Structures
1.
Amino acid sequence: MATTKRHTKEETHAVSHATVSAHTVKRVFNFNAGPAALPLPVLERIREELLDWRGSGMSVMEMSHRSPEFESINAAAEQKLRSLLGISEDYAVIFLQGGGSMQFTMVPMNLCLPGKPVDVLHTGAWTAKAIGELKKGILHNIAASTEAEKFARLPHFDEIKFSSNASYVHICTNNTIEGTQWTAPPDTGPKTGDVPLVADMSSDIASRPIDVNKYGLIFAGAQKNLGPSGVTVVIVRKDLAERADKNLPTLLQYRTHIKEKSLYHTPPTFAVYVVGLVLEWIESLGGILAIEKRNEAKARLLYDAIEASGGFYVCPVEKSSRSKMNVVFRVAGGVGRSAAAQDSEAIERQFAKEAAAAGLVGTPGHRSVGGMRISLYNAVTLEAVEALTSFMREFHRTRG
Ligand SMILES: Cc1ncc(COP(=O)(O)O)c(C=O)c1O
């Protein structure tokens, strides 16, 4: 079992009867796709500050969102994201509720221009969800799709057919379910003029450097790379936020949240606090370049283990499209409905069961595609991937 055994120290707090008894903590290696692993130092910090946030005598959960304490937490989280990702003052950074999914509705509501379609690069289940919302009466164009190939690769740039007058282009930079990731966004400029690129970065934000200036809007649910569920980060060019009709529901206009610095209504205070801590942790490791190096090393180790298995493990994704965040593979090569595939599914269930027993949790693929999926978000350690690849070799040795 992969464990980190630690003893909490007896802590004293301003509230005299609040004590934490000593106990042993067992931690598994967590490869869940989201909500997902959080950095251990962040969890420890939360524990330290849980009952008394920096002398305030209360938990962040108990604070008024109008208090100077929470305002400082909110502002610090925004500032950390700005400095880590290099976000200029041309962009607003806001913390919203409703998850990544709410953005499938909110983005078109705010950014669509009359008679100008939304161009979508259709690369998997999450762009399908975005398209599903557009189908409810919004002019749109599928500028490229790899659905015919079961999304096992991303479109090549020369396959993309942008409209001449799109409101914006929608892209999902990392396809969490299919295990594909754009290495660089397609340039929407030369073909379409000044068409903003809207990126769903829910599963790869802050995992590698990006040039924010290439995007009109970026959104990401926090629960994979940035923190717990309950808060969604939106980075939006301020001028684009002004496209929205002022008669839209107040809460669904970006400008409302920009104007009120994410405090128009009660925000998910604890989630914002944890996002701030995660960003501080990234900074302490050396920032986004350092985290990218770490993420690359983890992904290389896992893909190499798959390739070295001689076909026992098979990654169905074309090499140039493979994600460094979500690695998908089949065990014993089975895909489809054949008897061999059914055997493979049984082996995959066994793989997940034995992995979990060995302290390697969250290995099954998304229920819509099956197979295995290993999420390697920022908080997942190299040690976790080493433990997983050892397990994979042993599983192959006894089953292959
Ligand atoms: C790429 C991507 N977009 C959107 C979502 C939806 O996010 P939420 O569950 O926060 O609505 C997810 C969730 O896994 C995702 O991976």
2.
Amino acid sequence: MFGKDKQRQRDLFESERSFRLLVEGVADYALYMLDPGGIVTSWNIGAQRIKGYSPDEILGRHFSNFYTDVDRANGKPARALRIAEEQGRYEEEGWRVRKNGTFFWASVVIDPIREGEELVGFAKITRDITERREAELKLAQMQAQLAESQKLDALGQLTGGVAHDFNNLLMIISGSVHTLKKGIEDDPRRQRALIAIEAATRRGAALTSQLLTFARRQSVNPEPVNVAERIDAVRDVLDTGVGGAVTLQFDVDRGAWPVIVDVAELETALVNLVINARDAMPTGGVITIAARNQTLDEETRAGDYVAISVEDTGVGIAPDVMSRIFDPFFTTKPVGKGTGLGLSQVHGFAHQAGGTIRVSSEIGKGTKIAILLPRTDVALSTENAHVAAGGGSGTVLLVDDNPDVASVSASLLEQLGYTVRKVADAEAALREIERDGIDLVFSDIVMPGKMDGLGLARHLKETRPGLPILLATGYSDAAVNVRGDFPILRKPYEIHQLSEAIAKLPK
Ligand SMILES: Nc1ncnc2c1ncn2[C@@H]1O[C@H](COP(=O)(O)OP(=O)(O)OP(=O)(O)O)[C@@H](O)[C@H]1O
Ligand SMILES: [Mg+2]
């Protein structure tokens, strides 16, 4: 009997000892006890590791030392103990303070310990989950970014589809107007009507163009560009655009790297940003246009970029507005003042060029919007071919599947002095060329049939290397494939643009 008791006592001692060793040895959790008043009565190695106190520094002190000043002032420690006592458990995530004053994000559990009915203290388990919290926040942020870019992609596909058809319509209107204008020189009323139609068509073309840029289907003429020079070129336009109360200031690095963009798109983007900046400063202020080289070293984006930024001292952008500024047709401006396409264009432009946009804004202080464009190694072309438009002669083979567009284009070509032969697809074009007498091929890119305009152009380059080819498109993903192999005219075009494009063709 006596021996058995002794054995049992030894077993109990052993199991208590190993339990104590276990608790003391757990390094990833702070496990410790409090007396009913919140005084620390035991301390394990995990507690020391996480909170930084050795046992003799903390035993006998109150556990509210682990809380932030604000939490202490609000009575949070006492409340935690009361809840644990009343509800049998207290659980929380929140900021706690280490001995050295730094904060960590803690997962906290407090359990009441009772002997019979009587509360004898609390068991406290604390984990440092700062890293997990940071990872979660980062993940949430990335998910939000992804959702945003998916939304803009979907909108882009929708708008791209609609806008593309508009360009053919506008081409027909603007071309027909040009033809109608002839012969009514002595009828001012009709002249005025036609001028109004012309203006509306231009406005329609500009809007469609912004939509297409947003849909990233616009950049048909990307070329290596010197950013500083391009900014110089639009200086006057911008100056007259901002008006008297606003000062326009430039801070452009002359050594900014070259980038590959469509010049017209870049200029439109700049104008859009500057107009927004002006609108944000109804009582005047300063707009700073800057360009500088910037090397990014981020997880999702690394490399050399040129940052072109427009900064204002205006009203700023409210957080709830911020998430929507790139949406097409989102505007906070009164009806007739804003279409909500400016930043959509800027967004599409930057992304199509392989870049991105960064926005920072403070309410009442101002806004800075930067377009980041990737640096290119492609050399800048030195000669800036500007050929005067002259009268044409010779026979043009016009290839277009849309009969209305074809007859408008033919009429413009004829007005320029060319003889025109029309065909509706690439196969017919090849047959026509066999018959000889063609001096120039002018073809739409997007066409039904086995061969589109680009296929035709490539085929002719092989078989008829001397024959000049001009392509036209209202939009096209195909245009992106052309990549400077062939000159492209953007629809809708006016007669002087057609004339210039033909004059620039390599002979
Ligand atoms: N610099 C800025 N400061 C304050 N708010 C701005 C700024 N730029 C843009 N915004 C806000 O973003 C909205 C969308 O701008 P966006 O350029 O796309 O359209 P818009 O200027 O309203 O119209 P549009 O450019 O088509 O004439 C604006 O209506 C405005 O609320
Ligand atoms: Mg705008």
